[in-house]
Design a protein that fits this description.
By secondary structure, the protein is of the alpha/beta class. 58% of the residues lie in helices and 9% in strands. The protein is elongated, with a radius of gyration of 35 Å.
C-alpha cells in the first residue's frame, strides 16, 4: 500500500467518526496532508498553527484509531506545520547533496582512483600485449590521438594495469584531471540518485554529471556490464558524446571485442569503434617467465628459486596473470612455512596441487617426467633442456618427450616450451623416433616400462 492509498483509507475512517462539517474544516485536502509514513510514525502537515493545536487537543485518539484500522499497528501521529516540513525537506536535500559531493571528492583523490603501482615501468611487454602497450603509451603522451582507446581481452591479461598506467603517467606529467571508474560503479552511482527520494533529483543529477563530464580523461573499465543497465547506457552515451565533442580522452576496457558486446545499443557501439581498438591475448610462455622473474625481483627469496620452479609455474598458469602472481606468492609462503624457505620443484608442486587439481596429476606433470628420466640416465635437467645434441643427452630427451606426449594431455607446442622452447616439429620428430623404435627395440621397451613404473 502506498502513502496515497493509506491516507485515503485513513480519511475514510476519520469521516465515519466525525461530522461532515468537522471533517471539511479540519481534514480538507488543502490544509491537512500526509507528509510521510515511516517506522510506524505518520507525519501529517497542516498550514496553520491553530489547526495543529486543535487536532492535537481534540483528535489524536481518533486519528490513532483510524490509522490502526488501516495498518493493524499502533501508529504514532506526528503533526507539523507545512513551513517546517519545507525547511526539513531543504535540509535533507542539502545533506544529501553534500554527502554525494564528499563521495565524489573521495573517489577523485588518490590518483583519481588509480593504483600507483600500475605503471608503464612495471608492465611486462611481450608478443601478446605489445600493440596495446604501444597504443597506451601514445595516448598517455599525446591524449586525443586515439579517441576512444578501446582495450579488450580476457580477464587477467593486463588491461586494467595499462589503463592505470596511462592515468598515472598523465597525473605525474600533466595537469589533466583523470578519473578511473568501473562501469558497474558508474551505473550504481547513477541509479542510486533515484533511490533517495521521490521528489526533485535535479541537483543530484547535476552533481553526477559534473563528476564525469568535467574531466580531461575518463577511464572506464569492464564496459560489458553496461549491457544489463539500459539507463546506465543512456547516461554513458551522453557522457561519451560530451567528452568526445570537447576533445577529452576516453579510455575503455572490456573482456570482449566491441562487436561482441551483446545488448549494448548500436549507437554506443558505433562510438566505441570510432578510435583505436587493441586486443591483449593470453601471455605466451616467454612472457609468463618474464612476469614471474619480474615479480620475484622484489622478493627476498628470489635468488633461491630454481629455474625448473619458474618453468613449472609458467607452464601451469598460462591464461591469467593474476593467478600467475598468486601462484608465486603461494610457493614462497608454502616454502617458508614447511621447508625453511628452501624452494624446490617438489615444494612448488605440493604448494600448487590444490589449484591444479583439475589438471593432470602430479605423477604425469612434464617436470616430473623430466626429473625421473634425468635420474634414470644420470643427466641434469639443464642438460635435457639445453642445446647439447650428444646422444647421451639427446636420446633421454627424446624418451622424455615421448613419455610427456603419452602420459599427459599437453600438445606438442606446449611440450616444446618445457624443453628449452623447442619448436613443435622438433618435438614431433623426437616422439616419432621413439614410437618407431619401440616396434623393434626390446631393450627400449624395458626402459619405457621401468620409467612408467617409476612414475606411478
Amino acid at each position: 500500500m502506498n502513502n496515497n492509498e493509506l491516507w485515503q483509507k485513513f480519511l475514510n475512517n476519520i469521516k465515519d467518526e466525525i461530522t461532515d462539517i468537522s471533517f471539511n474544516i479540519w481534514f480538507n485536502e488543502d490544509d491537512t496532508k500526509l507528509y510521510s509514513f515511516k517506522d510506524d510514525v505518520a507525519t501529517i502537515t497542516v498550514n496553520q498553527d491553530f489547526i495543529k493545536k486543535h487536532l492535537e487537543d481534540n483528535y489524536m485518539d481518533i486519528m490513532a484509531e483510524a490509522m490502526y484500522k488501516v495498518t493493524n499497528s499502533n501508529i504514532t501521529i506526528n503533526i507539523i506545520l507545512e513551513k517546517d516540513a519545507i525547511l526539513l525537506e531543504e535540509e535533507k536535500k542539502k545533506e544529501l547533496k553534500n554527502s554525494i559531493k564528499e563521495d565524489y571528492v573521495s573517489q577523485s583523490s588518490d590518483h583519481a582512483n588509480l593504483n600507483p603501482n600500475y605503471t608503464f615501468e612495471s608492465f611486462i611487454v611481450g608478443n601478446s600485449n605489445k600493440f596495446a602497450y604501444k597504443a597506451a603509451r601514445v595516448v598517455a603522451e599525446s591524449p586525443g590521438t586515439y579517441n576512444p582507446l578501446f582495450l579488450y581481452g580476457e580477464s587477467g591479461v593486463g588491461k586494467t594495469h595499462l589503463m592505470h598506467a596511462i592515468g598515472n603517467y598523465l597525473i605525474q606529467n600533466t595537469d589533466k584531471k583523470v578519473l578511473y571508474i568501473a562501469s558497474d560503479k558508474f551505473v550504481d552511482e547513477y541509479t542510486r540518485i533515484f533511490r533517495y527520494s521521490e521528489k526533485n533529483n535535479y541537483d543530484k543529477i547535476d552533481t553526477f554529471k559534473d563528476k564525469y563530464r568535467n574531466v580531461d580523461v575518463l577511464i572506464i573499465d569492464d564496459i560489458q556490464f553496461l549491457s544489463t543497465a539500459p539507463k546506465g547506457q543512456e547516461e554513458f552515451f551522453h557522457t561519451f558524446n560530451e567528452l568526445h565533442n570537447a576533445n577529452k580522452q576516453i579510455i575503455i576496457a572490456s573482456d570482449r571485442a566491441v562487436d561482441d558486446l551483446n545488448s549494448i545499443e548500436n549507437r554506443l557501439l558505433t562510438r566505441l569503434n570510432w578510435g583505436l581498438t587493441a586486443n591483449i591475448t593470453t601471455p605466451d610462455y616467454d612472457l609468463r617467465v618474464s612476469i614471474i622473474k619480474n615479480k620475484l625481483a622484489f622478493k627476498e627469496a628470489a635468488e633461491d628459486i630454481p629455474s625448473d620452479v619458474i618453468e613449472y609455474i609458467a607452464n601451469n598458469f598460462d591464461s591469467d596473470i593474476r593467478k600467475l602472481e598468486g601462484a608465486i606468492t603461494r610457493v614462497l609462503a608454502y616454502s617458508s612455512m614447511f621447508n625453511k624457505g628452501n624452494i624446490t620443484l617438489d615444494i612448488a608442486v605440493d604448494a600448487l596441487k590444490d589449484q591444479l587439481k583439475d589438471r593432470s596429476f602430479y605423477k604425469n606433470d612434464v617436470q616430473r617426467i623430466q626429473r625421473v628420466v634425468c635420474d634414470y640416465y644420470k643427466i641434469s635437467i639443464e642438460q635435457m633442456k639445453g642445446k647439447n645434441r650428444n646422444n647421451e643427452v639427446n636420446f633421454p630427451r627424446q624418451i622424455a618427450i615421448y613419455l610427456c606426449r603419452e602420459l599427459t594431455t599437453e600438445s606438442f607446442p606446449k611440450i616444446g616450451s618445457y624443453f628449452g622452447g623447442r619448436n613443435h616439429s622438433t618435438i614431433i620428430s623426437a616422439y616419432q623416433r621413439i614410437e618407431k623404435e619401440l616396434n623393434t627395440n626390446e631393450k627400449l621397451k624395458g626402459v619405457i616400462r621401468d620409467l612408467k613404473k617409476n612414475l606411478t
